[in-house]
Amino acid sequence: MAELIFKEELNSTNTYAKEHMEELSDMSFIYCNRQTNGKGRLDRVWVSQNSQNIYLTIVLKPEEPNFPYVNLTQYLCVVVCRVLKEYGVMPQIKWPNDILIGGKKIAGILAQTSTAGHKIKGIALGVGINLNMSLEEIESIDKPATSLNLELNRDIERDEFLSKLVCEFEETYQAFVKEGFENIKHDYLEQACFLDTEITVSTVSQIHKGRVKALTKDGAILLCDNITNNDIVITMGEIQ
């Protein structure tokens, strides 16, 4: 059962979740009006001063031995896309976990684990969604971005959107835990904007260029490398 925890201001919802992991219960949904140090992937800044956007972290404490950790952010991508589609927009997913509208980023997802030795105490699954932003705020972001209110030319009720998101997560989470990527594969591929395209992917150690042929059964990219003409599997990285 979901527990909603509201804070007026946090440095970041993920940081709060990690710092309080011991006392937080499974399926705690922490959200706030403002983040003073909002972060995206690779320690990028996430603009977080507008109280009418979504700054949310879901605390998860899975006990299943085969829990699909690697696909968790992809699952949340699908959940967010389902809610966005209720508003009449057509979201796209940029592997692994950015959500775009018309090629511009509207949401980002970040999963971080809290550990004690080799044991995982819990997961902080964070998402930031631009719901209500001015054109000036959007133009101040250093990469192409958008906001739902600008796409629809009307204000968005934040708490209504949040309620839809929590309900969708609650209703579909157990099926995802049981089936892994296979459970979300159809919806993920339906929104994917990178399939059968030429991409550049940066990983921890290399940069690969090539054409995306497919996703594997585990949600990794199957890439035909331009230099070797061989198929390679990329499990972690970022499309540039």
What are the defining features of this structure?
single chain, 240 residues, alpha+beta, BirA Bifunctional Protein, domain 2, SH3 type barrels, 12 strands
Indicate the mean pLDDT: 92
Under the CATH scheme, the architecture of the largest domain is 2-Layer Sandwich
Question: In total, how many beta strands?
Answer: 12
Q: Number of helical segments?
A: 6
Task: Provide a descriptive summary of the structure in words.
- With 240 residues, the protein is an alpha+beta fold.
- The chain has two domains: 3-191, 2-Layer Sandwich (BirA Bifunctional Protein, domain 2); 198-239, SH3 type barrels (Roll), CATH 2.30.30.
- It has helices spanning 13-19, 72-86, 135-139, 148-152, 158-179, 181-191, and strands spanning 3-10, 28-35, 54-60, 92-94, 98-101, 104-116, 119-129, 198-202, 207-215, 221-225, 231-234, 238-239.
- Helix 1 links the parallel strand 1 and strand 2.
- Helix 2 (72-86) crosses helix 6 and helix 5 (158-179) packs across helix 6.
- The longest helix is centred in the C-terminal third of the chain and has 22 residues, at 158-179.
- The model has no long low-confidence stretch (mean pLDDT 92).
Could you outline the blueprint of secondary structure elements for this entry?
Layout: E1 3-10, H1 13-19, E2 28-35, E3 54-60, H2 72-86, E4 92-94, E5 98-101, E6 104-116, E7 119-129, H3 135-139, H4 148-152, H5 158-179, H6 181-191, E8 198-202, E9 207-215, E10 221-225, E11 231-234, E12 238-239
Parallel strand pairs: 1-2
Antiparallel strand pairs: 2-3, 3-7, 4-5, 5-6, 6-7, 8-9, 8-12, 9-10, 10-11
Helix pairs in contact: 2-5, 2-6, 5-6
